[in-house]
Amino acid sequence: MSTTSMAKGTTLPTSLPWSGLLALSTAAFTAVLTELLPAGLLPRMAPALAVSEAQVGFLVTAYAVASFAGAIPLTVLLRGLPRRPVLIGTLAGFAGSNAVVALSSSYGLTFAARVVAGLMGGTLWAMLVGYAARMVPAVRRGRAIAIVLAGITLALSLGVPAGTALAEALGWRTAFGALAGLAVFLVGWVWWRVPGFPGEPPGAGLPPQRVAALPGVPAVLSVTLLLLLGHQVMYTYVAPFATHAGFGRTGLVLLVFGAATVAGIWVTGVLVDRRLRATLLGALALCTAVMLALGLRAGTPAVLLASVALWGVAFGGAPTLIQTALVDASGPAHADVATSLQATVYNAGIAAGSLTGGLALERLGAGALPWTALPLVAGAFVTVGLGRAHAFPAVRRRT
């Protein structure tokens, strides 16, 4: 699809622009994999960088903190610029930062590269959903956004396990080098197949602080934060926890989790429009039960793998449910700003969760990780249970 066909005043095509949407979906895949890949490589990266496994885990923290700190200010700074050059710039930043990680033997330099990658991630997440929405007619907007966000599920279900397997076979530096190459490929794909759009005019829409105060939005953002805190405590340090449990095959654990997220997405797609509140409560209750099971019986391989599978089902659907609740609470007119706020809170949860998990690992050992995560995911469940109807409606509003 040409850029000119998408210019203002022309009619959007009735068919989906698959190539462009898949490019955006692959960008989401690249961002998630860049963020989470160190979680599966802690034992391999730590000796090469001459640091502890917990310090390698802090590379996930560095990415998330940078995304959290940079998403809103960078979005405000860049929103007046044409969209495609900004998108290409973020992908080039991913390519450069992952190349540095692949080549560096210095923890400080690697940490700095992760900060740059986090800034790119914050910028990317603030614009992906809006970009997809502008590429299609309003009647196809939801499907287009779903295609783009499927890159997240593919990264969790296939990307992280594949990256871990590649690192086991060829070394962790090869895995990051492959990520850098993927980002370079994406630069060309986006330039060729993703249409260009002008930047936003100054003063358009409500400022972020007013969107954050809309009824229902604070509750949804609170659930996002609590869930990500609890999830990341465990997910970042799944390798040392699996070793602690006597099951050292981290790649298999991550594969089970990732494959189960696909089932979670499918179940959510069936139920979200009819039973948003009940489905979200079920997912959060399942996450809570999983943390309890991991704390009590992770030493039994069948319990470990079954718990991880149920965790994947629950977590696979939860982000879609939460984002749907957020758009319902904010209204379509403020959805882009609300999504950028959620991206900031999401990365705050990842940063604080990986930091909290690292501290628990160093001070209390891997066995303390599920008990650290348990009250956090339980807090998310309670927040939804007590939430008012405009935050988590039993039936999704179609506005």
From TrEMBL:
One of its GO terms (molecular function) is transmembrane transporter activity. InterPro entries: MFS, MFS_dom, MFS_Efflux_Transporters, MFS_trans_sf. Its main location: membrane. The chain crosses the membrane at residues 60-78, 85-105, 111-132, 144-164, 170-192, 212-231, 251-271, 278-296, 302-322, 343-361, 373-395. It is found in: Cell membrane. The keyword Translocase does not apply. It is a multi-pass membrane protein. The keyword Transmembrane helix applies. It comes from the Bacteria. Residues 20-397 form the Major facilitator superfamily (MFS) profile domain. One of its GO terms (cellular component) is plasma membrane. Keywords: Cell membrane, Membrane, Transmembrane, Transmembrane helix. SUPFAM superfamilies: MFS general substrate transporter. PANTHER family: CHLORAMPHENICOL EFFLUX PUMP RV0191, PURINE EFFLUX PUMP PBUE. This is MFS transporter.
